[in-house]
Amino acid sequence: MRDGRISLENNLVHIVAKLEIIAAEEKQWIEGYETQNV
User: Which branch of life, at top level (predicted)?
Assistant: First the structure.
């Protein structure tokens, strides 16, 4: 039971890390798009 919980926590850490990377890339893309339109 404990092993399953540890693997779930590890999966959540990876998911959060991926979301942070996606959010950072999206933010850069939006900022780049806005500067092109100025």
Answer: Bacteria
Instruction: Using CA atoms of 9, 12, 17, 19 in order, give the dihedral in degrees to the nearest 10.
Output: -170
3-state secondary structure of 23: helix
Cα 30-36-38 angle, rounded to 5 deg = 105
The SS3 of residue 13 is helix
Q: How confident is the model at residue 33 (pLDDT cuts 50, 70, 90)?
A: confident
User: 1: which 2 tokens?
Assistant: 């039971």
Query: Count of residues for the chain?
Result: 38
**Encoding tokens for residue 28?**
């850069």
DSSP at 18? H
